[in-house]
Amino acid sequence: MSERAASSRPGEFSLIERYFAPLATSAGAVHLQDDAAVFAPDTGCDLVVTKDMLMAGVHFFENDPPFEIAQKALGVNLSDLAAKGAEPKGYLLGLGLSKDISEEWVAEFCRGLKLVQDQFQIDLLGGDTISCPQGPLLSITAFGQVPTGQVVRRNEAVAGALLYVTGTIGDAALGLQLRLDEELADKLELSAEQHDFLLNRYLLPQPRVGAAQALRDYAVAAMDVSDGLVADLGHMCRTSQVQASVKLESVPLSDAASAMIAKDAAFLETVITGGDDYEILAAVMPENTGAFEKALRETGLCCAQIGVLGAADVSKKEIALSLNGKTYALHRADGFKHF
Question: What is the DSSP string of 101-165?
Answer without folding.
Answer: --HHHHHHHHHHHHHHHHHHT-EEEEEEEEE-SS--EEEEEEEEEEETT-PPPSTT--TTPEEEE
